[in-house]
Specification:
The protein is of the alpha+beta class. It folds into two domains: 188 residues, no CATH class; 92 residues, no CATH class. The protein has seven helices and 16 strands. Helix 4 runs antiparallel to helix 5 and helix 6 packs across helix 7. The structure holds zinc ion (ZN). Zinc ion binds next to helix 1.
């Protein structure tokens, strides 16, 4: 295995997808780094990994950060706009996301994906019926009829009637309970209105930085940073944030850079090339030359340096 980014100039060829770390966890600065961290979360297709954390720290941080990224409104819009270019990555991202399902006949129930299947929520429409996506209707109706004590023959007849019904027509399944078969023609995302926290931005920047320098060798400076990421506690004042949108429209790659700027180190990452996050680590007279620019291509799962 190669050391990847940290030894000398970055190679021109593509960089391995798993990088060796520094041996010790960059978060607790104590335990062996025995688990891989996704530098940019897997949730949004970030496939580059490095041995940076111990299992304890990794467990503590894992779930929350993934969910935060999934909930971020800008991330959602960016990913939705390139989904046809990265179907594999998008397919796992869209799980748990809410949609409005627009049907041919005008009903607009909410829906979610479970695996590859679209599930329309069983809420009641204004006319008292429940909407159901044609592909999942049989299972739903069967369950409802079994619960109401229907015979096998009755269930068979009802399913037959439903199969033959036109889209948008209300079929009475049991007394006072009707189901509408919908043909979904379009989905629009329901946005959460949430945005990722400074702690997550800092975590990603810190992971990126750790590919190039050994935070453990400068523990006085980095320990408070690592602690604030782990415990979601106050971020040290010598860390500065910037955030914005580039003029670029979203593209199927993420990129990041690490540079020395005015005696500080600036780590910037651009999710989908469009959402910019920059973290400046002030007072960082750490290593002499730091300047890398890396592109993580989601389509070909390749990571390579750029000039
Ligand atoms: Zn640890």
């Amino acid at each position: 295995m190669t050391d990847g980014l940290r030894n000398g100039p970055v190679p021109r060829e593509s960089i391995p997808l798993v990088l060796r770390g520094w041996g010790t966890c960059i978060y607790c600065m104590n335990n062996p780094a025995n688990t891989k961290e996704h530098i940019i979360q897997k949730t949004i297709g970030g496939f580059l990994e490095a041995w940076l954390a111990c299992d304890k720290c990794n467990n503590e941080m894992g779930q929350a950060t993934d969910l935060e990224l999934k909930d971020d409104t800008n991330v959602r819009l960016a990913f939705e706009s390139i989904k046809t270019q990265t179907p594999r990555a998008f397919n796992s991202y869209r799980k748990r996301q809410k949609y409005i399902a627009h049907s041919e006949s005008g009903e607009n129930p909410s829906a979610v994906f479970k695996g590859d299947a679209l599930f329309v929520h069983w809420q009641t429409l204004e006319d008292g019926s429940s909407p159901v996506d044609a592909s999942q209707s049989e299972k739903f109706i069967k369950t409802e009829l079994l619960n109401s004590g229907a015979s096998e023959a009755e269930i068979r007849d009802k399913l037959e009637e439903f199969r033959n019904a036109e889209n948008g027509r209300l079929v009475e399944i049991a007394k006072g309970f009707g189901v509408k078969k919908l043909a979904i023609v379009r989905l629009t995302p329901v946005l959460s209105g949430k945005f990722i926290s400074d702690h997550l931005v800092l975590k990603i920047a810190y992971n990126i930085l750790s590919l190039l320098i050994t935070p453990n060798n400068h523990s006085e400076y980095f320990e408070p940073i690592a602690t604030s990421i782990l415990n979601r506690s106050t971020i040290p004042p010598y860390v500065e944030f910037r955030q914005g949108m580039s003029n670029e429209s979203p593209k199927p790659y993420h990129r990041f850079s690490v540079e020395k700027v005015d005696g500080a180190i600036r780590v910037a990452f651009f999710l989908f090339d469009a959402l910019m996050y920059a973290v400046t680590f002030h007072r960082a007279s750490l290593d002499s030359e730091i300047s890398v620019r890396i592109v993580m291509n989601l389509k070909s799962r390749e990571i390579y340096p750029v000039a």
